[in-house]
Amino acid sequence: MDTNVFVTCLADTFYPQAARSVTNLLHKMKIKVSCPPGQTCCGQPMYNAGYFKDARKAAQSFIDLFGNTEGPIICPSASCAAMVKVHYPKLFKDDPVMAKKADVLSGRIYEFTEYLVKYAKINLADLNAEFNDSVTFHQSCHFRHLGVTDEPMNLIKQIKNINYIPLQRMDQCCGFGGTFSVNYPHISKKVVADKVKCIHESGASWLIYADAGCAMNILGYANKTDQPIKAMHIAELIDKATGDLSC
After folding, report:
1. How many domains are contained in the chain?
2. Using one digit for the tens of pLDDT, what is the confidence trace for 222-232?
3. Based on the domain organization, do 130 and 110 belong to the same domain?
4. 208 within 8 A of 130, measured Cβ to Cβ
5. CA dihedral in degrees (66, 72, 77, 83; nearest 10)?
6. What is the pLDDT of residues 178-188, one digit of tens each?
7. DSSP string of 125-178, one letter each residue
């Protein structure tokens, strides 16, 4: 089976370990992995800001690049996966040729946990997954666009010896929302303050996240207000829990 990893801008710039862990885990699963060079932004920031012409340019670059690959496209970010799956077809609705290509890619892209549970049907016991600490999980708003619900918790609960502590208001927005946090900073600040409060009140040692945008906002606010939080992407958690590549 061939798979392709879409790294995303924030993973590439701020959280490369997330994309690296996605690749590591696929190797452990004996799945062939490709990471096509020349990847750029999916166009989500431009799309959210209403610059649809610029968003189409970025989207066309993505479609041209990944359209030359085969197999599932795995993304460690729900928001970027949702951009390709949900919004690309809208961007090209008046261009029959590009709309057809966008529809094809829309059916090939998976958010990381969605791919593991729904497509690969992974059983982490087969990889001897074990993690001796407590974790809580923040759920990205964009999971709703993808129909992802309990897939992340399904994976976490498969890990031996882990202490999973449900996060109060787990699926409540972290306040980032891309350009939302820039356009409405006072609202964003109150939302992320509540999220950080819930994380600390959980008592968990680790915050597990599935979207770098959420992590950047939550951890940025936590550090700025002297409320540091230990955090890692769910791909990192599973990568650590399943040991090195010799396993």
Report:
1. 2
2. 999 999 999 99
3. no
4. no
5. 60
6. 778 878 889 98
7. GGGT-B--SEEEEPPPTTHHHHT--SHHHHHHHTSBT-EE-PPTTTTS--S-TT
